[in-house]
Specification:
Helix content: 25-40%
CATH architecture of the largest domain: 3-Layer(aba) Sandwich
Strand order of the largest sheet: 1-6-5-2
Number of strands: 6
Number of domains: 2
Radius of gyration: 18 Å
Low-confidence stretches: 248-252
CATH class of the largest domain: Alpha Beta
Oligomer: single chain
Number of helices: 9
Strand content: 5-15%
Order of helices and strands: HHHEHHEHHEHEEHE
C-alpha cells in the first residue's frame, strides 16, 4: 500500500513539474524546434512532411494496402509474422528519423512524449492483463549509451494508458553487431537466440505489447515475439514510432 501511495505521489509531482516547465518554456515543434501553440506537436511544415500511417492498412502488419479490399497483405498471408499486430505512427523519413536519432543519441528525452502522443491512438482497446515490454538492449550497449530509448517511450505510453511497463520480462542475452546493411535473411540469422524470457516473469496468458522506436524489417521484434510466446504469452503486438515502408530504406 505504501509503495502504491509513493508511486501516486511521484506521478503527481512529475505532472506538476511538467506543467510548470510547460508554462515557463514555450512548446516547440518536435521536428524543427519552431515555437508552436501546443506541447508535443509539430509546425505546419513538419506536419505536412510526416507520413502518418494511421490505423488502416494490413490488419496484421499495418502496411498500406493499395487499391484492394483485402484485409491482409500478400506477405502476411504467405508467411504470417509471429507478431499478432504491428502498428507504427509514421513512415520512416527525414523528420521521423531525426526525431528517433535525437532521442537515441542526442538524449532529447522530451521527444519520447511527442512520439508517444501519436503512437497512443494506434494501441486500440487493450485487455486488462496487457503489459508494455520495451525491446531490450544488450547490457554492453546499455552501459555505453546510458539508457534504452524504448524504455523511455514505453513509460510515456504507460503514463497515457495506465498499462504497466515490465523491464525484466525479456532480456537480450547475445550481443549482436549493428544490422545496418544486412538483408532480411541476414538480420534474422543475426538476432536468432539473442533474446531470452525471464522465467520469473508472469507471462502466461498475458498480452504483451512490444515497444520500439523504429521498425525496419521486423526481424528483432519477431525474435522477441517468438521467445515471449514460448514463455506463455497469449498475444504479442508491436507499437513503434516509425517504420520503414519501402525496401529501399533498409540501410539503418
Amino acid at each position: 500500500m505504501r509503495d502504491k501511495k509513493t508511486m501516486q505521489l511521484r506521478s503527481a509531482v512529475s505532472s506538476l513539474f511538467r506543467s510548470a516547465l510547460d508554462f515557463a518554456l514555450p512548446p516547440r515543434c518536435g521536428g524543427c524546434g519552431t515555437v508552436v501553440d501546443e506541447t508535443d506537436s509539430f509546425c505546419a511544415d513538419c506536419w505536412q512532411s510526416l507520413d502518418f500511417l494511421g490505423p488502416g492498412g494490413c490488419s496484421r502488419c499495418g502496411l498500406p494496402l493499395q487499391a484492394t479490399d483485402a484485409e491482409n497483405c500478400a506477405v502476411c498471408l504467405a508467411r504470417p509474422p509471429r507478431l499478432d499486430r504491428i502498428r507504427a505512427a509514421v513512415a520512416y523519413g527525414d523528420i521521423s528519423r531525426s526525431i528517433a536519432m535525437r532521442l537515441k543519441y542526442g538524449r532529447k528525452v522530451a521527444l519520447a512524449r511527442t512520439m508517444s502522443r501519436y503512437m497512443h491512438p494506434l494501441l486500440g482497446d487493450l485487455p486488462a492483463d496487457t503489459m508494455f515490454v520495451p525491446v531490450p538492449l544488450h547490457r554492453w550497449r546499455l552501459w555505453g549509451r546510458g539508457f534504452n530509448q524504448s524504455v523511455i517511450v514505453a513509460r510515456e505510453l504507460s503514463r497515457r494508458t495506465g498499462v504497466p511497463v515490465s523491464l525484466d520480462s525479456l532480456r537480450r542475452v547475445k550481443r549482436t553487431p549493428p544490422l545496418k546493411g544486412l538483408n532480411l535473411r541476414q538480420r534474422r540469422r543475426t538476432v536468432a537466440g539473442a533474446f531470452r524470457a525471464n522465467p520469473q516473469a508472469e507471462l502466461r496468458g498475458r498480452t504483451v505489447v512490444l515497444v520500439d522506436d523504429v521498425l525496419t524489417t521486423g526481424s528483432t521484434a519477431d525474435a522477441c515475439a517468438r521467445v515471449l510466446k514460448r514463455a506463455g504469452a497469449s498475444r504479442v503486438d508491436l507499437i513503434s514510432w516509425a517504420r520503414v515502408v519501402g525496401p529501399s530504406r533498409l540501410d539503418l
